[in-house]
Amino acid sequence: MSNHRFFPYALITVAGLIWGVTFSLALMATSEGAHPLAISAWQVVVTSFFFVIFCLLAKIPVFRFRHLRHYLLIAIVGIVAPNLAYYYAAPHLSAGILSITVSTVPLLTYAMMVAMHYESVMVKRVFGIVLGMIAILLLVLPDRGVDGEDANFWILLALFSSVMYSIENIYIGHGVDDAIDVREILAGSNILAIFLQFPLAMYLGVAEPLSWLASVPGLALAALALGSGLAYSMFFYTIKTSGPVFASQCAYIVTISGVVWGIILFGEQHSIWVWSSVLVMMIGLVLVTPNKKLESLLLQESVSSHAS
Questions:
Q1: How many domains does one find in the chain?
Q2: Cβ–Cβ under 8 Å, residues 132 and 267
Q3: Does any domain span residue 95?
Q4: Neighbours of 83 (CB within 10 A)
Q5: Helices 251-266 and 95-102 meet at what angle, rounded to 10?
Q6: Residue 306 domain flag
Q7: pTM, whole model, 2 decimals?
Q8: Does a structural domain hold residue 305?
Q9: For every residue of 171-230, which 3-state class applies, written as one string?
Q10: How far from 215 is each of 30, 130, 218, 261, 288, CA to CA, in Å?
Q11: pLDDT per residue over 153-175, tens digit each?
Q12: Residue 89: helix, strand or coil by DSSP?
């Protein structure tokens, strides 16, 4: 099954569908005013539990000190920093807007890979990045794009999360040895994130008690953590087998399902500026995604890696 040429597409599709609903779950988790640091701290606890069980069942190492630098970098860049920015911004934005900001990850990933000489410059993809910037401007510039006096600041803060995720994508794809199982990386980095966040939350007096997980926001966060953990597993597996640019294509599904879930669960209604942003962003993503020759190469590498 994993050798099938459509398997990478199936992975990013399912991961994108799961991720799409997490934007709505984030709004539920922040609905009663819990501090973003406390929310993020409990998220990594639930996610760590998920991956530790996963690793134990699969007989995969949970934490090895020789990989500490990988855990630490991913914990900071891929978990703590983007989580805090995301949970600070979430109460001020709709689920649909949050999903649009995350769509910039493929664009930023490609731009960074070009800057680092991992990818060649292609006019089509550069134009796609320009369209992505226009899509964000359609949210930021018009007063009617989103609600709230400081909406532009919160959009930019959410975009900071996308920058961090893009850096993480590239590091997973090019900085981590293929011999290291993705599940070990995620287990180790989430465990480390607990020790980075919980002591600080307790010191600042913003930590939530264990009983908070039984509340509606806590249950929403638990569902978010488990869903994100599953999606991350599929997503990072795709990064290692098919490359970070290919894997980032799941942003199509993330964006569309995020907007749809927001409408279904919260009855969100978006202005013409927001819908225009979605359309322009989708076109930009189409232009940035790998060409057929590169896709074929990535899929061949995926098959070869499983066959060896």
A1: 1
A2: no
A3: yes
A4: 23
A5: 180
A6: no
A7: 0.80
A8: no
A9: HHHHCCCCCCCHHHHHHHHHHHHHHHHHHHHHHHCCCCCHHHHHCHHHHHHHHHHHHHHH
A10: 12, 43, 5, 21, 41
A11: 888 899 999 899 889 888 887 88
A12: helix
